[in-house]
Design goal:
Structural class: alpha+beta
Largest sheet: 4 strands, antiparallel
Function: Major role in the synthesis of nucleoside triphosphates other than ATP. The ATP gamma phosphate is transferred to the NDP beta phosphate via a ping-pong mechanism, using a phosphorylated active-site intermediate.
Shape: globular
Bound molecules: adenosine-3',5'-cyclic-monophosphate
Helix content: 25-40%
Catalytic activity: a 2'-deoxyribonucleoside 5'-diphosphate + ATP = a 2'-deoxyribonucleoside 5'-triphosphate + ADP; a ribonucleoside 5'-diphosphate + ATP = a ribonucleoside 5'-triphosphate + ADP
Order of helices and strands: EHHEHHEHHEH
Number of strands: 4
Strand order of the largest sheet: 2-3-1-4
EC number: 2.7.4.6
Family: Belongs to the NDK family.
Subcellular location: Cytoplasm
């Protein structure tokens, strides 16, 4: 299996509860390496652009409002099959469906305030990484 990269966001519900370190430790324990990381306040335009694929969904406006309700930590993660490793440790989108020991089962408050985002494919990982990071900000 190849070493690949994925994109992660530690969401406002988690930064508000001071869970950045706890979530990062779970990512690292899952074999992922943080090769870029920054804490940012997303603008409305940034959040709308990032989640543009969901623009027609009924939850879109609430999702954007939530994502700009406080700081987030955007990260590039590297490891063996990083997209899958990250999604496995995050757990299901809805914490009610997430497996024991996953980030969302452990920390998420709701399907919206679900503590973490992770790319769903290598293709989207590349797009999402480029949305927030310049190549020189990623140090493997
Ligand atoms: P994320 O992995 O960041 O990708 C899109 C986000 O939309 C998802 O996590 C959830 O936080 C949110 N989301 C998905 N489905 C719903 C829903 N039915 N209601 C509210 N938010 C949702």
């Amino acid at each position: 299996m190849a070493v690949t990269r994925t994109f992660s966001i530690i969401k406002p519900d988690a930064t508000r509860r001071n869970l950045t370190g706890a979530i990062t430790k779970m990512l690292e324990d899952a074999g992922l390496r943080v090769v870029a990381s920054k804490r940012i306040q997303m603008t409305k335009e940034q959040a709308e652009g990032f989640y543009a694929v969901h623009a027609e969904r009924p939850f879109f406006n609430d999702l954007v409002s939530f994502m700009i309700s406080g700081p987030v930590v955007v990260q590039v993660l590297e490891g063996e099959d990083a997209v899958k490793a990250n999604r496995d440790v995050m757990g299901a989108t809805n914490p009610a469906d997430a497996a024991e020991g996953t980030i969302r089962k452990t920390f998420a408050e709701s399907i919206e305030a679900n503590s973490a985002h992770g790319s769903d494919s290598d293709e989207n990982a590349a797009i999402e990484i480029a949305y927030f990071f310049k190549p020189e900000e990623i140090v493997g």
